[in-house]
């Protein structure tokens, strides 16, 4: 719901500012956007396991999502580009389970120290439509993207690495990713500016620098 409200507000600003003769970027422009985003959804998902009754000493850390977008303006209001998105999390915890002991006809408690490292890389082709706005330093756009979705997982139990079966919580990962987003760039000079973007299928919100070549 908050994402929908943000999109509505964004488009309201665009409609108020829109004109037909102002343009921040023109055909032939190349824009590069390094950025950092939030939240790390994979880490939030992993942290739900820390509330399980059979888990203790849960710890997690991570960074990202972060990445870089490159866009080439094939026309005054249309751009094609590439978006590379990376995120990483590292979790560790002790998991307890009950194991039946036939000698004593009872259940013994078995503890397992689990250490997991997970990295996610998405490489997407982008198509952006750029709005015409009143401020020539302001670039507002809507974008769609599609590409790969690759995970690199390593899990250790009591110091022994488990075989990677390319599953995540028991569910096979879809090897493709998609993104729908809206964003803005504001240029302080002909070359350098800042960027901000909200979207689905990648960072929910991101911000960084923009370099126009």
Kindly describe this structure.
With 213 residues, the chain is mainly beta. A hairpin with a 2-residue loop joins strand 6 and strand 7. The chain contains 2 helices and 12 strands. The radius of gyration is 23 Å and the shape is elongated. The strands form 2 sheets. An 8-stranded antiparallel beta barrel has the order 1-2-3-4-5-10-11-12. It has a two-stranded antiparallel ribbon with strand order 8-9.
> Which value, in Å, is the CA radius of gyration?
23 Å
The structure class reads mainly beta
**How would you sum up the global shape?**
elongated
**Low-confidence parts lasting 5 or more residues at pLDDT below 50?**
14-21, 167-172
Helix and strand succession?
Answer: HEHEEEEEEEEEEE
- Beta-strand share of residues: over 45%
Helix content: 10-25%
How many helical elements?
Answer: 2
User: What is the CA–CA distance across the termini?
Assistant: 37 Å
Number of strands: 12
Please state how the strands of the largest beta sheet are arranged side by side. Answer: 1-2-3-4-5-10-11-12
Largest sheet, in brief, is: 8 strands, antiparallel, barrel
Average pLDDT number: 82
Q: Notable features of this structure?
A:
12 strands; two-stranded antiparallel sheet; 213 residues; mainly beta; eight-stranded antiparallel β-barrel
In short:
With about 210 residues, the protein is mainly β. The chain is built from 2 helices and 12 strands.
What is the topological layout?
Elements: H1 2-17, E1 30-38, H2 41-47, E2 55-75, E3 78-101, E4 106-131, E5 138-148, E6 150-157, E7 160-161, E8 167-168, E9 171-172, E10 176-187, E11 192-200, E12 205-212
